Amino acid sequence: MATRSNSSRERILSCAEAIILKKGFSATTLEDIFKDAAITKGGFFYHFDGKEALAEALVLRYLEQDDAIFEELSRQADALSEDPLHRLLIFLKLLSEMMGNMHETHPGCLVASFTYENYQLNDHIGDLMRLGIGNWNRMIMARLEQINEQYETSGDTTPETLAYMFTGIIEGGILLARNFSNNQLLANQILAYRSFIRLIYGAK
Questions:
Q1: Whole-angstrom distance, CA of residue 155 vs CA of residue 173
Q2: Contact indicator for 25, 121 with CB cutoff of 8 Å
Q3: What is the reported pLDDT for 124?
Q4: Residue 27 CA to chain centroid, in angstroms?
């Protein structure tokens, strides 16, 4: 059971993330967060030393949530097939379905939002964001390298290039979903990447 302290901290993080995704980091004030989270100034500083400490906690929370999602979808995909190509295709299908079935429009990518305003953040937060993106890339690249051990590609793309392509499609798809209030646009981008993977590896 969450303690009141943990509950307050989570409420601050959730409110701050929603405001930052809507207004941007630099335009978001601590007063905005105090009001939206229904917390006093003292209550905020009990949990965070300031705005940059909040930003660091937000990035860590966001990356942990995404890692948990990817790990769970990977577990499901791996349980359904022993073939590395089919496992990746299943993973992408599951990810697309999850994104398309979200009841609310995808709120946006916190890492992307912070990246746009990187000059406002310290180097440590920038390192955390690069680490998070690197983890996503390494996860996909490891799968692609396993596929390359069994399949030949029809082009000259590398696992690294295809892994970065995955990240770019996810981030771009989130932007589309948010701007047009349609999660299916994100889901369709993931399916397009899946079709591309099928094509270059000649999957039946």
A1: 24
A2: yes
A3: 79
A4: 22
In contact, 186 and 177? CB cutoff 8 Å: yes
User: What distance, in Å, lies between the first and last C-alpha atoms of the chain?
Assistant: 48
Element (H, E) at 57: helix 51-80
Supply the pTM of this predicted model: 0.85
Q: What is the CA radius of gyration of the chain?
A: 19
Q: In this structure, what token pair is assigned to residue 85?
A: 């190509």
| Whole-number Å distance between alpha carbons of 41 and 115 | 27
pLDDT interval class at 25 (50, 70, 90): confident
Exposed (0-12), middle (13-18) or buried (19+): which is 186, by Cβ within 10 Å?
buried
Q: Which amino acid is at 151?
A: Y
Whether 24 contacts 113, CB under 8 Å? yes
> What is the reported pLDDT for 1?
37
Residue 61 and residue 13 in contact, taking contact as beta carbons nearer than 8 Å: yes
User: Rounded to the nearest 5 degrees, what angle is found at the Cα of 67, between the Cα atoms of 62 and 68?
Assistant: 100
Please tell me the predicted confidence (pLDDT) of residue 2.
43
Q: Which of 172, 173, 191 is nearest to 182 (CA)?
A: 173
- For 38: left if phi > 0, alpha if psi spans -120 to 50, otherwise beta; the answer is left
The reported pLDDT for the residue numbered 120 is 59
